[in-house]
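Fold it.
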Amino acid sequence: MGLALVFTFLLLVYAAVLPSASPQKSANQDVTQQSQKEKEIERLLKQMSLEEKVGQLFFARVPVYNALEDLETYGLGGYMLFARDYEGLDLDGVKALTDRFQEASKIPLLVGSDEEGGTVTRISAILDTPFQSPMSLYQQGGLPMVLEDSQEKANLLKSVGIMTGFYPVADIAQYSDSFIYYRTLGADLSKTRTYIRQLVEQMKKDKFGSMLKHFPGYGDNGDSHTSMIWDNRSLTELKSYDLTVFAAGIKAGADSVLVTHNILTQIDEVPASISPKINQLLRKDLGFDGVVITDDFDMAGLADFISQEEAAYQAILAGNDMIMSSAYQSQIPYVLEKIEQGELTEKRIDESVKRVLAWKYDLGLLTKSSKIN
């Protein structure tokens, strides 16, 4: 009888201890994987020239001419596909195009396409069924339908070499006549937070690059594609409303955050995309350490405010990691000149390059052959 009791006791102890072993093993694996990631990033960084480092900070529109040559010349970090880039192609043709881009890139390239769905989708022109907007999907089948659509969309885009779709839109607007309204979920604050959290988690599972936009929140303002927008909301108002949605996405593990060109007058007097104060709000207040990327520099809201070259310098100085632009041929030399003049440090460049490389690593891009050896 005594032996039976002892045996039972040992079984209970073993059962109690066993579950704790698995989380510990998982934690050790996470530490090992993080260490491998950091080592690979440091290895690449040490072998990159200053010119190559600066090139990694540019997410460029695919140029009409010399697209392959420019990848070799400037060492660009990413290419954005627009509607014209899909003309005359089927899905196999898109895959062949992105393959050529990768072959021309010394460091694996981030290829992106604006694929929110609805009014903002580039690849839908060559699809039998265009991508629907999150609002439309949500109204038809709730959040499950939105998440299912995102998974299908991610799988399709990855199959043709596209690793980020420049979504989700984390904005929330109260009025249907607002510029951004039909690109939002069209739901209340609580439901929008849940949507962003679950969608980012889904995208992380799918290994498809997430991009929260347009920080710190578009609200019910006008369109910065056509003119400069002055947003007069207070920081207190933003923190209690718009920023809570971005915080939910960041907590869920968002890869990147896109910053708007709107001027938040109660925070800074310059566009958010070149504002150190807005960057600090994102980095310090919300604790985001992923890739911070500007909205497209070709938008009139910024282009009418500052030159393309100075804007690129100011954006990096403010703390942004990547710049969306088509003027990289003049911007990259300008940034390099600022470094040579001592107005920008290589250490600051390295901070952003590490984040860009970390994103590429997480998406599985750096496991592919790199021409830096």
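The radius of gyration is 22 Å.
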